[in-house]
Amino acid sequence: MATERPRRREVLDVLREAGAPLGVAGDAERLGVHPNTARFHLDALVEDGAAERTLERPSGPGRPRTVYTPRPGMDRGGSRGVRLLPQILLRRLAAAGPAARGEAERAAREWGRYLVERRPPFSRVSASDAAERLTALLADLDFAPDLGGDVIRLRHCPFLELAEEYGPLVCDVHLGLMRGALAELDAPVEAEALEPFAEPAACFARLRRT
């Protein structure tokens, strides 16, 4: 498997450099591999959505030829810098000074409203139902929540390294998400506070009935 991926990337590069639809034989010749090897990787690229397979009408007598072209768009292979973007944004936000925490909480509120499962029209949501829906949302976001009374224990932080670096800013984002979700539910309960590491292995989200 370790040798397939580099070869598959080579096959895709050949398609991109060809400038025209390429058949199995042409791809194999350019790579210096057996046609069956080229066909295997070409078909895999089609399955991955990186290439397209079509039939090319012959210019004379004969059967249509199967040809391949790269799909337009950026290569979806390779690694992702999943932490880089939030680091950039948090660093920029932190430079705003005392107003940064309020901005972080307000921005997260909007996402909390967007992410929570909506209540049916013209229905009322009880405090306990709202707490359960909020807990379900936090579970979807990988916080490993545990609801007990008016406290939700968050046993996992999906942004732990960022929280260690930027501290309250990240906690304000989490709190804003919860407040936005409860506001969208029009629930008789609100997220009053978030206590980071209230236990050695958990943070506490404290709820207050309104």
From TrEMBL:
Positions of region (Disordered): 51-76
Protein name listed in UniProt: Helix-turn-helix domain-containing protein
Cross-referenced InterPro entries: WH-like_DNA-bd_sf, WH_DNA-bd_sf
Species per Swiss-Prot/TrEMBL record: Actinomadura napierensis
